[in-house]
Amino acid sequence: MKAEQFDTRFDQGEDITADLDLDKARRPGHEQRRVNVDFPAWMVDALDREARRLGVTRQSVIKVWIANRLDQPRHPAA
């Protein structure tokens, strides 16, 4: 199928998922990259307590907290 036909079907609200190879689908800018960060033991313990309280993994807590911090507006230095 040509891209123009695909776009037309999509624009008309047709279900085009059967025409996609979802195993190879990627979200640009959202690729995973592994990083290693060393935390003091007290910080890991606090992260684990918060993760248990929320019922999620330590990694999830770290990701959400960092994402929230990065989404905050930045104020230029005076």
Characteristics of this structure?
78 residues; mainly alpha; 3 helices
What is Rg? 21 Å
Number of domains: 1
Poorly predicted runs are none
Number of helices: 3
Shape: elongated
Helicity, as a percent range? 40-55%
SSE sequence, one letter per element: HHH
Q: What separation lies between the terminal Cα atoms?
A: 56 Å
Question: Total number of β-strand segments?
Answer: 0
Secondary-structure-based class equals: mainly alpha
Strand content: under 5%
- In round numbers, the mean pLDDT is 90
The major β-sheet equals: none
Structural account:
There is one protein chain. The chain is mainly alpha-helical and 78 residues long. It contains three helices and no strands. It has helices at residues 3-11, 41-54, 58-71. The protein starts with a helix and ends in a 7-residue tail after the last helix. The model has no long low-confidence stretch (mean pLDDT 90).
Q: What's a quick, concise take on this entry?
A:
By secondary structure, the protein is mainly alpha-helical. 47% of the residues lie in helices and 0% in strands.
